[in-house]
Amino acid sequence: YGLAPTHKRLLECVANGSKVLDLGCATGYLAEGFAQKDCDVVGVEMDADAAQNARAFCSHVIVGDAGDAQILKQVPGPFDAIVCADILEHLSDPWSVMTELLSKLKPGGKLLVSIPNVAYWKMRFDLLRGRFNYTETGLLDQTHLRFFTVNSFHVAASECGYCVDSMIINDGGLPGFPHPVDWDSMPGIVRWLVRVFSNLCVFHAIYVMTPQVEETS
To answer: Which secondary structure element, helix H or strand E, spans residue 98, and what is its range?
Structure first.
């Protein structure tokens, strides 16, 4: 059905001709966009049939669980960009995965993570009503194993050795809020509200991350 707004923004974050790791590449719908930008794409996908389709757009596809340390060790880095498009929440230990991916980045490389925020206002309201019902898709997707807030993801990134250089808000999660966010059409007070109270107002975002630089004395 075409790329979602999140995917299009991820594509915009990666320079033409980059070497890219697409973690959880599925059938290669995002890898295809990178290939159109002359990127060399390596994919990791646990579904063998999906991986076979992704090979049309990837120079190499590893079939296996992206959360398996042994699978990640097979990934031939380093990369200019590593993309985790709504996959970390499906893994049992996303912290170990992010830490392992540090060694797969080139100097100046970046990790791009898109992930929902479990603390946005509607989820809080549902919890007040005693609702935490899993669904086939969305924030409470039945295959989601881990949940992050905007705040807790920043902490996790730091603990795994990254700096969050920027957060790109895809969905403000507010009534009538456009998806993707069109900041030019938003009243100033709404822009302020979302940015200052992002842990409450942001439903989904992309985090652009780079390895922390050790300070020298």
So the answer is: helix 94-101
For the segment 104-140, what is each residue's pLDDT rounded down to a tens digit? 999 999 999 999 999 998 899 999 999 999 999 889 9
Closest CA to 161 of 74, 206, 93, 101: 101
Q: Is the pLDDT confidence value at 216 over 60?
A: no
Rounded distance between C-alpha atoms, residue 175 and residue 111, angstroms? 31
Instruction: Count Cβ atoms within 10 A of the Cβ of residue 48 and give its class: 0-12 exposed, 13-18 middle, 19 or more buried.
Output: exposed
**Terminal C-alpha separation, the chain:** 53
Of 155, 152, 161, 165, which Cα lies nearest the Cα of 199?
152
Q: Is the dihedral of CA 172, 159, 90, 53 positive or negative?
A: positive
**Token pair listed for 126:** 């549902």
The whole-angstrom separation of Cα 60 and Cα 79 is 13
Per-residue confidence (pLDDT) for residue 131, from 0 to 100: 93
Q: How confident is the model at residue 178 (pLDDT cuts 50, 70, 90)?
A: low
Six-digit token string for 49: 């049939």
Parallel, antiparallel, or unpaired: how do β-strands 105-116 and 40-45 relate? unpaired
Contact indicator for 212, 162 with CB cutoff of 8 Å: yes
Report how far apart, in Å, the C-alpha atoms of 78 and of each of 101, 200, 217 are: 9, 36, 28
